[in-house]
Each structure stands twice: as structure tokens, then as C-alpha cells.
Amino acid sequence: PRTSAEQYKRSGRVRKSELEEGDLVFFYTRGRRNGVSHVGVYLRNNKFVHASTSSGVTINDLDDEYYARNFAGAGRVK
Predict the structure, then answer these.
(1) Is the model more confident about 7 or about 52?
(2) Cα separation of 18 and 55, whole Å?
(3) Contacting residues for 42 by C-beta, under 8 A, at least 6 apart
(4) 22, 48, 62, 78: most buried by Cβ count inside 10 Å?
(5) SS3 sequence, the chain?
(6) Would you state the pLDDT for residue 30?
(7) Strand partners, 47
(8) Predicted confidence (pLDDT) per residue in 14-54, tens digit
(9) Please, which residues have CB within 8 angstroms of residue 20's CB and are 6 or more apart in sequence?
(10) How many CA atoms lie within 13 A of 78 on its CB side?
(11) How far apart are CA 12 and CA 34, in angstroms?
């Protein structure tokens, strides 16, 4: 799937505590009412890589305030 919302719908849910490298992490960046709008790829040690419109490709921590507040869930592609 092309969009983060479609990827979220098609991936199998994974608990945050069970994340593995390569799992997808999803976020509400346009408000929860608008659904999932951003996706990253989990690395390890609570870090994920994603493309930011303002910073390009970057690595962040899932516990960073912004991402923790907007975390929608995680998924694994089978």
C-alpha cells in the first residue's frame, strides 16, 4: 500500500513492547480524527527512522514528546 493509512490497515498489530527491527510505527500527525498520517520503520532501542518534510530522513525516539503523544500503533507486514 502507498499511504500510511493503508499500510496501517493492512499490517498485523504489534504491541509497542514487542517491536522488532523492520516493524512499522504509525502516527497521527494531522489529529486523531483524521486517522493515521505518518509512518516510520522501527530500528531498535526505541528508535525509528522516517522521512520528515522539514528535516528529511531522520531518526527519532518513540518516547520523544511529539511522537509519544501522536503514536497510533505499530504493525508488522507478513
Answers:
(1) 7
(2) 28
(3) 19, 20, 21, 22, 23, 24, 25, 48, 74
(4) 48
(5) CCCHHHHHHHCEEECHHHCCCCCEEEECCCCHHHCCCEEEEECCCCEEEEEECCCEEEEEECCCHHHHHCEEEEEECC
(6) 87
(7) 61
(8) 999 999 999 999 999 988 889 999 999 999 999 999 998 88
(9) 14, 42, 76
(10) 6
(11) 21
